[in-house]
Structures are given as structure tokens and as C-alpha cells.
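The instructor's notes for this session suggest beginning with a concrete chain rather than abstract definitions. Hand out the sequence below and ask the class to guess, before any prediction is shown, which regions might be ordered.
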Amino acid sequence: MSAEMAEAIRQLVQEKGIDEDLVFRMIEDTLKAAYKRKFGTNDNAVVTFNDAHTDVSIYSRKTIVDGVYNPVLEIELDEALQLDPECEEGDELLIEVDPKEFDRISVQSAKQTAHQSIRDIQKDSLYSEYKDKVSEIIIGYYQRERNGNIYVDLGKVEGILPKKFQSPRETYRQNDRIKALITEVKKTPSGLQIVLSRTDPDFVRRILELEVPEIYDKTVEIHKIVREPGYRTKVAVFSHREDVDPVGACVGLKGVRIQAVIRELEGEKIDILKYDENPLMFIKNALSPAEVNEVVILDTAKRSALAVVAEQQFSLAIGKQGLNVRLANRLADWSIDVKTDEQFAEMDLTADSRRAANDLFSDETPVDELSLVTELPGITEELSEILKNNKIERIEELLSLSEEQLHGLEGMTDENYTLLSTLLKESFEVVDETEKSAEGEAPSATEEAPAGAAPEAGAESEEYECPECGARITIDMTTCPNCGIGLSFEFEDEE
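After discussion, reveal the predicted structure:
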């Protein structure tokens, strides 16, 4: 192959942007394919390039024999000596093959193979390049429109902006500059397809990264973006530094930063609001620009909430065709119902709903709401498993047991007993009902019993200790409620 042809291929490589090594490998395969078509095999074909890759040659490797059986693979000794006087029988000799010797069909087949290989290599190269650019912004120029889809000239390839990914506010003319987000890169029979979008929330994210340095360097971070393309976008942001206002950073001095984003979105309204871990505050912020007086949690499990606004703020909170509250629902991930102060006053909300709003972010579980032993603050998995094995699942079942019964539970160690006792004392106040009753019946400080009056019989029930287990007993008991031993009482008359 001539140096001119090799140079032409090099120019082709540069124009197409294909890796040079891949192309030279393709040339080698193409020449071997033509060789095989002419000689029936390419096992003995050798393709070499010079050091500068400006010339390429193809050789036939033949074994020197005395008596040729296969002229494709073998050469007669006498003929070989003419080419190399120092060769011997059994040696291998490289004999250059002129590509001009290939018949027309072989050459045509090789050309087709080369063209297909170039297309495949180019497709693979472009695929790798643009695959790494998914979720990045790219700039192209309007080329044509077909069935509502816009085809964009991206330089090396052609991108497609589907109708569903176009903002209803935007119209384009020939050679208009288009900035869009690469959402998908895929191979098709017709070539590489680059799918673009201007409606994806990440498109707004990338635009904000370009316009707001604090977002680019992660000082301010975007929590979530929701959009109704062409109408309104809500962006929740927060700051990693106390001295940086996330909303102010995004808006910029006199709104210069946010105005640049709005212009890129062809006038689409953008609400920048502060993200808050407290859903009550986040819901308030999500309904921006409306001012919310109060947020009431209706159902925590269903993530249902009620936002209360003034009468003049009601239409602003709802938005045109419910757009504002609909975006707020998606942003906060809560089902938000908006009511005026008057409507809220007429509603009959249960105490549980109101308490849910107050206790939503409490780190401690209210003691009076504890029902299961697994909810006991500080309980270990081992202790929970012991109680479960003893069929004790509820707090009231646990509190009904005496100290002896607790200590006697199957699997209960001294360490776990001590821990359980401590947890119960920290979480519950054990009230002695006898003492409580006695205190309730005791005369007040201003009421004194008549002098010399004796207490009536049976007015007070004395307590004693069981001789067997030490549990508290009274004289009206016939058996110990703890150990079950029979009881009897003997009294002596006092003189």
C-alpha cells in the first residue's frame, strides 16, 4: 500500500476523531480479509507498518520445502534461494504481496469492510465520549423539526430534543442557539442518538450551578427541585455554613443571579426557599410566596397536613389551577390541604391531631403513650428477647409483675434484671396505692380529731409481711398473692 493511501487514512482518522490504534488495527484486518478472499486463508498473512505509520505492507509467510504441496503456504527451495541465498529447507520466508494482485471482488469486499469498521469505530468512540456527559449541559444549534421533535447540531453528532422535553414557552428558528441537558445516549441502527431535555429538574440544577458559585463549590446545596415546565419551579436549598444565606446566595444582589436563570427558562417563575428538617417549617416555606400562619399535622403515618393562611393569602397559596400547592406537595412530600383562618376555626380537630403537631419532633417518646416493651427507652435487644420468650409484650403486663416474678423470668440474669429495674424506675413512677389511699383519707392540718376519741374498728387495714416471701399482706387475705402460701392470723387481747 502506498504512503499516499496511508496518509489519506491518517487524515480520515483526524477528521472523524477516531483513535489511531483502532484504525490501524482495522486496516490490518481489512487487508487480511482481502488476502483470505484471494488465497482461501489468512493464517500466513502478515501486515506491517513502518515506524512513522506512513506506509503499510502485507506479506505471505511460506515454509521452504523440497517439493511443494500447497503453494499458498509453501515455496520451493530453489525459488527461495533466489530471494534469499542464505535460506535453508525448513525455514520460513516472508514474501511481499502486492495489493494490486487482489481481484476486484476481493478489493471491493475489503473496502466495504473498511467503511463498516470505520463507522463502528466512530460510533463506539462517540458513544464513550457522550456517555460520560449524561446529566451535563450541552450547547447546539437548531437544525430542523420533524413531528414536533427538534434536531440539534452538536458538532460531531446530532442530538434530538423530543417534543415532551420542550418547554411550552419556547419556540425556535433556524440556527437558534439551544442549551439543553443530555439525558440519554444510546446506539441505534441509524447511528448514535443523543436525547436532550429542557424540562428535566436537573436542567435547572445545572443552570444554578453555573450562575451560583456557592452551589458549585457545595457551600449551598440543593435539597430538591420540582417543576411544572414553562410555569413554575420550586427549589429547596440549605447552607453548610451559618454565615451564608442559601436563599440570598441563589437570588444574588438585586436578583441578578436568579434573573439569569429565569431568562434561560424563558420567563418561567422560580421560587427559591429554605429547606428545613422540621416538616412544619418546610411546609410553610414550600407554600412560598404565600405566608402561612400555622401548620397542623393531621396524620403522621399518611403524611397529611393542614396549612392555615389568612383570607387574602388563600388564592396565592393555592396558585393558579392549584399549581402552587401541587408543587408544594411534591417538594415537601406531604399531602397539604390549605384552609383560611375562618375555615380552620370551624373545623373540629381532635386533640390527637393537635398533639401530633407538637410531638412530631420530640426525641423522647411520651411515657403515657408507651404500650409495647420494645418502646421502653434504653431497652436492649437481649432484654427484649427475654421478655418476648416469656410472652410479655405490653408495658402493662410488665408493670403487673412483682420484683420476685421479674427476677424469676426464664433467661433473666442479674445484669438484665438490674437494667430492667433501672429502666422502669426512670420511665414510670410507681405509686403505692395503699399509701395514696391513706393520704387521701388523712385529716387535713386544720381538722383535728376530738380529744380522747378512739379509732373505729376496721377503719384502717394494717399490713404485714408474708413469712415465706416477704410480700405485703393484709388480715383479710387467706393466701399470699405472691407465693400462694396459706395464711392465718392470731391476735392477743390487750389489757
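Then share the key points. The longest helix spans residues 104-131. The two ends are 140 Å apart (CA to CA).
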